[in-house]
Amino acid sequence: MSRTPLQPRSEPAAPPKRARSVMGRLSALQGRSSRTHNVVVLLLFVLLAALPAVSDSRSLFILLTQVFILAVFAMSYDLLLGFTGIVSFGHAMFFGLGAYSTGLFLSRFEATLPMLLLSVIAGMALAAALSYLVGVLSLRLKSHFYAMLTLAFAGLLLVAAEKWRSLTKGSDGFTFAIPEPLKDRATLYLVCLCTLAAVYVALRRFTRSPLGSVLQAIRENEQRTESLGYRIVPYKIAASVVAGAAASISGSLYVLTLRFVNTTVFSMDMTLNALLMTIIGGVGTLYGAVIGAAVIEWAHQLLTDLAGVHPIFERWIIFFGLLYIVVVLVFPSGIAGTCASWLSSMRRRRQPEDPEEERP
Amino acid sequence: MNSAKAARSAAPPILETDRLTVAFGGHAAVREVSLAVTDRSFLSIIGPNGAGKTTLFNLLSGQLKPTSGRITYKGMDITGLPSYERTRRGIGRSFQLTHVFPRLSVLENIRLAVQSRAGVRYDFFSSLRRHRKFEAEAESLLELMRLTGKRNSPAIQLAHGEKRKLEIAMLLALDSDLLLLDEPTAGISLEEVPAILEVIRDVKRQGSRTIVLIEHKMEMVLDLSDEIAVLYQGELLAHGTPAAIMGNETVQSAYLGGWYDDAAEA
Lengths: 360, 266
Ligand SMILES: Nc1ncnc2c1ncn2[C@@H]1O[C@H](COP(=O)(O)OP(=O)(O)OP(=O)(O)O)[C@@H](O)[C@H]1O
Ligand SMILES: [Mg+2]
Known about the structure:
The structure holds two protein chains of two kinds. Chain A is mainly α. Chain A has 15 helices and two strands. Chain A is globular, with a radius of gyration of 22 Å. The two termini of chain B are about 35 Å apart. At the A-B interface, helix 1, helix 9, helix 10 and helix 11 of A face helix 3, helix 4, helix 5 and helix 7 of B. Magnesium ion binds near residues 53, 54 and 96 of chain B.
């Protein structure tokens, strides 16, 4: 700056305030405990990675693998909903693109690892292109246009997948072979765990980049963000493209574990799943989405088991509705958000002087 | 154009409006306003509630598009430019109704303004840690506004006066050439006014920026201003030195009288 800097002068600090909202505690905690976060995440990763060495419970592997995959999907949704404040009703279309891309590549060509990788990349590219298109068409308009347009496009892709039978075999779907090394449950489990870790790290980095920090500003106050000199639309499109590409990865992994793909990957249920997992886990944190995926998948498993006891448990949507209501009542900021605020109030009780009010 | 002004300033004005008008429905909130702002001067805009002062700012900063008329800034027609473009060209504003990022920390609110001024907009790979200097600059503004104690609090938890200070810190962070201040001391406690006043005075003392201030407090206006413009029912009633405005009969009868009536009603 060529100008003389404005000189700060000192003044006694205002007395600290005790009362603090949930959101306040959460963001304060996030600000200070990045190291704690890294340690916890690393520890969790090592523990989960070591699991195949100590257990060979088939059902546990299947459950956790599913959790990892849906966690990637939920995180991608969180990028839109939690970070940028964009609501999508058609997030399943990106999931489905990845799913069909992998399914088709592996069924039409040789089922090898490079082919799998190629299919994942192709799915991501398609998803990125489509989300770019949807974004360009709707993100300069009022926010509900994006919700509507994603809904429309997802519906369109669902119908296309049903009608284009020569390619997709319609709603019957088709099975396909997967690369030999992945036929081992434990290997597939590890691949999904590593993918989750990689996507988590990448998305966390993204949200903490200069561009990502503007996404949160847009969520908070679009007009103010613009008046600071940021052009809104490119940011929203960037969020949409990254979210679409990440969702596609989860779709690829999803069908890889099933060795089967049909039109349900494009269904509204998929989108609702992402929405539910993100909100239940806690928006705007990424790890909240992972927690949400774990809770939902575990509940799903539980209900499936209970269905043998009484057929009422087959109506899992009722129970998810109930779960949702309970979570919203007990954990108003999602599981991640509310637990974080408990933690920080516990910390404050332990150390009476408020560290947050002091300068580090 | 305004003859009193044209005579006094030889340098071209930094900002000029030409018959600027905006109508909501049939009602013109700003009507045919032609106003020139001298470069590196301090101009206050006064007028009763609902005179159109904030609306004029919205036109200048690009929040609103005029129904007719033109805005020239640094010799360039900016009438059609969106607000982010104007900010990048050096027009910064603070808002009358506090307008911050409620759930972001106070530091982050300011840091975002610093980042924008630095022109780092689409960097999606490097970590924010690589941009510590933004944070350092935001910290010094925090200190200046005496908000350091609130560094990590979400903006929503600030008291009203603190929010106003944050608003000003964000404006300062933009390092604008032209600062539009919309009632920066409105609704804050008396003991907090001097701090804000001092910051505005500091900016003025530096002499490198142009300041346009909307303010109701006449003693503050008279103390700070090189020039005063009076808006009344959307029209520019008068524009001149403080002395000229205070001695202006039209202003006295049509506006100052009306203003006090308004105040009595409210
Ligand atoms: N977006 C809008 N739509 C319709 N009318 C508006 C809009 N913005 C402002 N107005 C009207 O324009 C007039 C001028 O409002 P403005 O806020 O500019 O007044 P002001 O001079 O800033 O008043 P105050 O001193 O109370 O801040 C008011 O009658 C207001 O109701
Ligand atoms: Mg106003």
